[in-house]
Specification:
The protein is mainly beta. It folds into 2 domains: 158 residues, Sandwich (Jelly Rolls); 334 residues, Methylamine Dehydrogenase, Chain H (7 Propeller), CATH 2.130.10. 3% of the residues lie in helices and 46% in strands. The longest helix has 11 residues.
Length: 507
């Protein structure tokens, strides 16, 4: 006699492993997610990302393409570059007149640099004369030697300013602790075999500090890397090449960022750390990259949007987030591929159309498409609009791979500070279709979970923990619950998902 179906229950933790664009649906760990948009994975739960608010306005009507910060002791400033000018946006509200105007480009690269004469912000853009801010006033640089308007990138190494010349394999360097006067050149044309130009450089420390093991890493547009060690490029006894390497071509002009003693680089091979990618063959770079679990998505984005301006990494410790800006449509649509600094788990943020990012006084800001600067991680609205979040955890066989199941009930366990709209879909046997249902924030009073209409009901504002069962139907070997929410002015955390099903036969 055939065995009778047995009713069983099973619980799955929230997908704290984050977004997985690498593994096949049938081979994906249950701790991961097929889709994770605007949910941020922590160690034990996932949470709808924070929102943003308008911070500074009046920078013309177009793109804000650069945000720069100046810090000297306890004094600090933030500047936004747009509308052909540099604007002081240290305080919230409408900006005044541009501190520097009539500029040909808004795409500046900058460093902070201190000398006996004070602390300075120095910036270049490859089109205009380099600018210097001394804490009070802006002025054009007094550097001589290179064609100043051609200086496209800037960095600091061993107490020297280093500049890169546009479309050239030559870099320029200043005397120690000097911001003006004659610069000297160093030509790397004989070092690289593939040609191209110097896309930029970063420092990489092998001793964890800024000592003799602080290396200068020069990267070309073709993905070649030359590593130099020493303190004076004019002296063969104190400046020597350590080695040359191949990595993926750097993407964008802001492809590199210091990451403690290391550096994070946006390349054709994904988001990589220098310390991990230089010692190995390029073919193995993807397996050790920061973005290893989502490299398929990263590579697709680079293939589609790699030539757009706006690629940039940002470390936001307060998040704790490592953010990579993805400019899908220049000055219109951007995404962010975001990683938890503690766990490395990934997710994607949508709805924040950023051209550039910066951390100022521990807060994260981005330059918008409309002459505004926005403050991120401020409340739970996107500048007054609801935040839409979408998560689809990996499919689960619930410990019984070859047995069919009749799914009867399911419940996502939420912790919420108010009422939220939710849309839920049961997906079976690797059905990866997307429902057309969209949660709406139009029902202010909410409903009672378990009696509201499935797919359009809203959570009651009085509940801190929502864990009522909802009826579902479907027969399959494996399943997942696709969850979409619309959040406005409240925090929302997903802790787990529970299922009730009848276990049937093998066929």
């Amino acid at each position: 006699m055939p065995s009778q179906p047995q009713t069983r229950s099973s619980s799955r933790a929230a997908p704290v492993g984050g977004w997985n664009a690498r593994d096949a649906l049938a081979d994906m760990p249950e701790t991961d997610a097929i889709v994770m948009d605007n949910w941020f994975p922590s160690t034990d739960q996932i949470k709808v990302r924070p929102g943003f608010t308008s911070y500074a306005t009046g920078i013309g009507s177009g793109a804000v393409e650069t945000l720069m910060t100046y810090t000297s002791g306890s004094a600090s400033k933030m500047f936004a570059c747009g509308n052909g000018g540099i604007y002081d946006v240290s305080s919230t509200g409408a900006v005044g007149a541009a501190a520097v105007s009539s500029l040909a480009s808004n795409r500046w690269e900058y460093v902070n640099f201190g000398t006996a004469g004070g602390a300075f912000l120095i910036c270049v853009n490859g089109s205009d004369a380099p600018q210097i801010f001394d804490g009070t006033n802006w002025a054009a640089t007094t550097i001589t030697g290179p064609t100043l308007n051609n200086l496209a990138w800037i960095n600091v190494a061993q107490s020297r300013l280093l500049f890169g010349e546009k479309n050239s394999l030559k870099f320029w360097y200043m005397p120690v602790n000097t911001i003006g006067g004659a610069a000297s050149s160093f030509d790397l044309s004989g070092t690289f075999r593939l040609g191209g130009y110097l896309a930029g450089m970063v420092t990489w420390s092998r001793d964890g500090g800024g000592g003799m093991q602080d290396l200068c890493v020069f990267m070309t547009s073709e993905g070649e890397v030359a590593v130099y060690q020493g303190i004076d490029p004019s002296s063969a006894t104190t400046w020597a090449r350590v080695g040359t390497y191949r990595i993926g071509k750097p993407i964008g002009t802001r492809f590199a960022m210091k990451l403690a003693s290391d550096a994070a680089i946006i390349t054709q091979d994904g988001f990589v750390q220098l310390s991990r990618v230089l010692p190995i063959d390029r073919l193995g770079a993807g397996a050790v990259s920061i973005s290893e679990k989502i490299n398929t998505a990263v590579n697709n984005a680079i293939r589609s949007y790699g030539s757009n301006f706006g690629w940039q990494p940002l470390l936001y410790p307060k998040g704790p987030m490592l953010i990579f800006n993805i400019p899908a449509v220049y000055n219109k649509t951007a995404y962010q591929y975001v990683f938890n600094n503690i766990t490395g788990a990934a997710c994607r943020f949508t709805g924040m159309n950023a051209n550039c990012w910066v951390v100022y006084k521990d807060n994260a800001y981005f330059g918008g498409t409309d002459g505004k600067v926005y403050l991120f991680d401020n409340g739970y609205y996107d500048n007054g609009n609801a935040i839409y979040a979408d998560v689809k955890p990996a499919f689960s066989y619930f410990g019984e791979t070859g047995r069919q199941k009749l799914f009867k009930m399911a419940r996502p366990v939420f912790s919420a500070s108010g009422s939220v709209a939710v849309s839920l879909d049961m997906n079976l046997d690797f059905d990866d279709s997307i429902s057309s249902a969209t949660p709406s924030t139009s029902a202010p009073s909410g409903g009672t979970w378990g009696s509201a209409v499935w797919g359009i009901g809203t959570w009651a504002a009085a509940e801190a923990i929502s864990k009522d069962w909802q009826s579902v139907t479907g027969v399959g070997y494996c399943a997942t619950l696709h969850v979409r929410v619309s959040v406005g002015g409240m925090s929302l955390t997903m802790r787990s998902t529970d299922f009730v099903y009848e276990a049937g036969g093998i066929l």
